[in-house]
Amino acid sequence: MKKPRLTTHLPRASEIELSHWVKRLQEAQAQVQRLLGGQADAVLGAGGETFLLQETQEKLLKSEEEARRIMETQKVILDALDASIALIDTGGTILFVNEAWRRLTEGAAPGEPKFSLGQNYIDLCDRAEGENAEAGHVIARGISSVLCGALPEFGLLHPRYSAAQTRWFRLRVVPLSDTSGAVVVHTDITDLLEAERAAQAGEARYREAAEQLSTALRASRRVMDFSLDVICTADAEGRFIDVSPASEKIWGYQPAELIGTNYIDKVLPDDQERTLQITADIIAGHPAPDFENRFVRKDGTIANIVWSGNWSEADQVMFCVARDMTERKVFEQKLAEQAALIDEARDAIILRDLEHKILFWNRGAERLYGWTAAEAIGRPISEVLYRTSQEINEVMEAFLIRGEWRSELEHVTKSGEMVIVESRWTLLRDGDNQPKSILIINSDITERRRMESHLLRAQRMESIGTLAGGIAHDLNNLLVPIILGVGLLKHLGAEGPSLKVIDDIERSAKRGSSLVKQVLSFARGVEGASVVVHIGDVINEIESIILNTFPKNLTLETTIAQDIWLIDGDPTQLNQVLLNLCVNARDAMPDGGLLSLTAENLVIDAQYATLEPGIASGRYVCVKVADTGCGIPKENLDKIFDPFFTTKELGKGTGLGLSTTLRIIRSHGGFLNIYSEVGKGTIFTIYLPAESGQAKAETEPAENEESPRGSGEWILLVDDEIPILTITAQALEAFGYHILTAEHGATAVGLYAANQDKIALVLTDMMMPVMDGPSTIMALRKINPKVRIVAASGLNVNAHVVKAARAGVKHFLPKPYSTDTMLKTIKTALMEAD
Asked: What pLDDT, on a 0 to 100 scale, did the predictor assign at position 715?
């Protein structure tokens, strides 16, 4: 603790009063000494209660009693004082102390000298240690100076340290008139000093406050002059009393133009009533919060003003501050428009903090994910968009490395649906360039990815079609010699077991030809030939395949109505439909079961037709394929007709069967229904429009019907396949024709130019090296515009038919063709008039 500086001090009012009592004490002492004749040395005992008289006690008993009475009276008076008083002799020994001195000594701190009777006051002060050492030395020197007559008296302000606190005392040492000692007085002035300091501090604060007020008053005018807001005063009637210069910038009025006018006249009429009401509330002592109105500027434009006001009852004026909020309003309007644009954006715009909690969620996000802003904001983004938190952690690792990130993600909507989004992440930073939040913009590309997937599938199908087309062309060319050879063998008179083998070969070749057509139909959508078909014949053919190829633990039941109606369609494609459904039924019953095929007639009325979109009322042939297999789960029923969708193991299904089936049925004008129960089985019901006429179904030509024969006409055969040339030539020669052959179009054109007078017809393939079919046909037409031509092809029949037709060809043979079909087509072409 820092030691207070010791200073001398002049007597104050309390000291003057004490001097009065000291003087009386001195007078009492002088009287006692006169009574004792100067021979007695009076010494105060313990507590100052008695005088010790050394001589003449008995002679001066009366005078002693009087002196005792006087001294006791003085002692009572001295004990009643708050000042601590002691009498010391010329050597410094303490002769007398009052009650206050005794209390002071008792309250001394541990280790501090005890100034009691009989002790030397000067020595005790001079030996003071610690924080009292400096004060003790000064006191000792001062008292010694007083006792030796060097100083008339000694005064000092010094501290004393008690156990509880530091107390300040004023010390006075007054010599006795007879120089026999001195009176030592200690007066506690701690409270007085604290009061003085408080008064001085209060006075300083008052001066500071007064100066600040003065400064504020001087600055108030400057505030009004330089404030960006309008500061004004008005009376109770609303008339301006004083207006700051800012009014010119904000309102366009000079202050002088406004003083004396009523401010309400400058308020937009629509806002006047509310402004008057708020003003009345302020004057009535009910201050309103800041309020807005529209103020008409001098140039007639409108300013948006925010007012704050307060009524002074003493001055009978209203103090107001008006702030121009016009630019802020424009800014807020722009922000509102931008917020509206953000909400109207189709993209999901999300703001999240670094702890993954969502801070902003626009309407685009609501539309995409199904969560409202109230539901999403504040929640971890992993709970809203991701299946697991691991997904977002992986993205964050990549994002924090670069500070931005862009890629595709799979998100989960509120309903559990998966969506694919193109996600763009941007790291936002605060004013200190520290990461603050992450802006995420997600664009829904689910449909685009689905379309791209379909496009990829279409491209894949095109590739498959190209591959299938090449295979089909080669297979058809391989089948032509087989089918023509079978017909030729029959014509040459095969009998008995040989004829049965020939029939089996022919049946297999035709079946192979049908399969090739199915491949082309699926891969390239080739339309089949539409003929009148008896559905029973198709079912019987499927029955034969099932009995010969399906597992023996399957039981087949077929039921065909006797009066079943005919349908108009492609028997090969209908065969493919039923075979696909039966194969699926077989796979659904790995442990065996019942497979049933049923065909019946059904009339659909107009009322039922309205329940099924795209279905017309009328007569239908209804074919059901039912099994007792495992059934189809409900979640897969809407997907089974999607291309490439399959529940079978890899390598056991392509997902194309049902897709092709549905397309064929719709191309026939029909529709399909499905009913399935898991564990019980599935029923596919096919509805095909019945033939409206009375035509009979196409059947194979009767065995005894003769194929048309030639009459020695010359036919030019053009094909790059030598086996086809050979067998075709043999078949035509067997039926009465003369043959010329060419391996490509260039040779054919030369042969025809040399033999056009005798060549009656040209049978040419459409796909050949050197010169293809269309080019050959055009070259032949230039030689002879009336030349009879039959075109043939084993690939993309429709396209080649169109090309042949454009070249003027009316007859077309799709490969592989039978001998009978070839002979009939050639005969028809030869019989046409030129």
From this structure: 93
Where does the pLDDT of residue 600 fall: very low under 50, low under 70, confident under 90, or very high at 90 and above?
A: very high
Tell me how far apart the alpha carbons of residues 72 and 533 are, in angstroms, rounded to a whole number: 156
Residues 658, 662, 668, CA angle at the centre, nearest 5°?
A: 145
Between 255 and 148, residue with greater pLDDT: 255
pLDDT for 68 equals 57
Instruction: Report whether pLDDT(6) > 50.
Output: no
pLDDT at 716 exceeding the cut of 90? yes
Mean pLDDT of the chain: 75
CA atoms of 800 and 814, how far apart (whole Å)? 10
- Read off the pLDDT of each residue in 114-124 and give the average, rounded to a whole number: 78
What spatial distance separates the first Cα and last Cα of the chain, rounded to whole Å? 141
Q: What is the DSSP string of 14-43?
A: HHHHHHHHHHHHHHHHHHHHHHHTT-----
Question: Treating both helix axes as pointing N-terminal to C-terminal, what angle do 773-783 and 797-806 enclose, rounded to 10 degrees?
Answer: 20
CA distance linking residue 577 with residue 581, whole number of Å:
6
Chain centroid to CA 491? 81
Task: Sheet containing 738-742: give its strands across.
Answer: 738-742, 714-718, 759-765, 789-793, 811-814
- Asked if the bond preceding 613 is cis, omega within 30° of 0, the reply is no
Contacts of 347 (CB under 8 A, 6+ apart): 364, 441, 442, 443, 444
Q: What is the mean pLDDT of residues 724-745?
A: 89
Q: The dihedral of CA 689, 695, 697, 698: what is its sign?
A: negative
| Rounded distance between C-alpha atoms, residue 542 and residue 560, angstroms | 13
Burial call 161-198: b when 16+ CB within 10 Å, e when fewer: beeeeebbbbbbbbbbeeebbbbbbbbbbeeeeeeeee
* Separation of CA 184 from chain center: 88
Question: Listing from the earlier edge strand, what are the strands of the sheet with 435-444?
Answer: 358-361, 348-353, 435-444, 418-429, 404-412
| Burial environment of residue 330 by CB neighbours within 10 A (0 to 12, 13 to 18, 19 or more) | exposed
Distance of CA 699 to the CA centre of its chain: 68
Residue 182: phi, psi to the nearest 5?
Answer: -155, 160
Please report the pLDDT score of residue 155 as a whole number: 62
pLDDT of residue 231: 84
Which positions ≥6 away from 510 have C-beta within 8 Å?
A: 483, 818
- Max avg pLDDT among 109-118, 213-222, 303-312: 303-312
User: In the predicted model, what is the mean pLDDT of residues 128-156?
Assistant: 73
Least reliable range by pLDDT among 22-26, 392-396, 774-778, 825-829: 22-26
Are 440 and 352 in contact, with CB atoms under 8 Å apart? yes
Residues 139 and 158: beta-carbon distance below 8 Å: yes
Contact between 668 and 689 under an 8 Å Cβ cutoff? The reply is: yes
- Please state, in angstroms and rounded to a whole number, the distance separating the CA atoms of residues 480 and 580: 27
Query: Is the whole model's pTM more than 0.70, yes or no?
Result: no
DSSP-derived 3-state class of residue 453: helix
**C-alpha neighbours within 13 Å on the C-beta side of residue 820:** 13
Residues 539 and 541: their CA atoms lie apart, in Å, by 5
* Residue 201 DSSP class: H
Q: How confident is the model at residue 664 (pLDDT cuts 50, 70, 90)?
A: confident
Q: What is the pLDDT of residues 780-821, one digit of tens each?
A: 989 998 899 998 887 655 555 666 777 778 888 887 888 888
The Cα 171–Cα 647 span in angstroms is: 113
Q: Strand 789-793 vs strand 759-765: parallel, antiparallel, or unpaired? A: parallel
Contact between 580 and 661 under an 8 Å Cβ cutoff? The reply is: yes
- Please report the pLDDT score of residue 125 as a whole number: 80
Query: Which residue do the tokens 């139909």 mark?
Result: 521
CA angle 396, 398, 399 (to 5 degrees): 60
C-alpha torsion 445→663→576→480, nearest 10: -100
- Give me 564's structure tokens: 């079943």
